[in-house]
């Protein structure tokens, strides 16, 4: 998936990622309870997710199955953000993060450990 995942689409996907395959009706009931969406709003967003290839619609019963994992969506969002804001430069991203936030010794140690593991 290369397209941006909009907030409304993420809300639908989060339900499926948390609960597993479920019907559009079940998704609409959960989102009505959580954020007050009506059935039509939820169905419209589900249809957009199907068109984008994020959700697979199975019959009977309009069963919805995620076609991407939450981790894939996070990776896509991260790539899009780094490309858009930092011209694709991960070192520039880290530089900006390190300048903005004072890190504890424990956080610095963990970050160094993560970098060492990548080598």
What does this structure look like?
- This protein has 119 residues and is mainly alpha-helical.
- 68% of the residues lie in helices and 8% in strands.
- The protein is built from six helices and three strands.
- The chain has a three-stranded antiparallel β-sheet.
- A hairpin with a 4-residue loop joins β2 (55-58) and β3.
- α1 (7-19) packs across α3 and α2 (24-35) packs across α3.
- The longest helix has 17 residues, at 70-86.
- The protein is elongated and about 50 Å long.
- The percent of residues in helical segments reads 55-70%
Could you list the spans in which at least 5 consecutive residues all have pLDDT below 50? none
Distance between the termini: 28 Å
Shape: elongated
Largest sheet: 3 strands, antiparallel
Helix segment count? 6
SSE layout:
Layout: H1 7-19, E1 22-23, H2 24-35, H3 39-52, E2 55-58, E3 63-66, H4 70-86, H5 90-100, H6 105-118
Offer a concise description of the structure.
By secondary structure, the chain is mainly α. It has helices at residues 7-19, 24-35, 39-52, 70-86, 90-100, 105-118, and strands at 22-23, 55-58, 63-66. It is built from six helices and three strands, in the order αβααββααα.
Features:
mainly alpha, 3-stranded antiparallel beta sheet, 119 residues, 6 helices
């Amino acid at each position: 998936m290369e397209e941006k995942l909009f907030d409304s689409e993420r809300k639908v996907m989060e339900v499926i990622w948390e609960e597993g395959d479920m019907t559009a009706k079940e998704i609409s009931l959960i989102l009505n309870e959580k954020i007050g969406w009506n059935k039509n709003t939820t169905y419209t967003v589900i249809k957009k997710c199907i068109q984008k290839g994020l959700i697979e619609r199975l019959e009977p019963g309009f069963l919805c199955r995620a076609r991407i994992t939450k981790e894939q969506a996070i990776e896509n969002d991260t790539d899009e953000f780094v490309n858009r804001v930092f011209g694709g430069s991960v070192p520039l991203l880290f530089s900006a993060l390190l300048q903005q936030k004072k890190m504890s010794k424990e956080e610095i140690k963990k970050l160094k450990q993560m970098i060492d593991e990548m080598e």
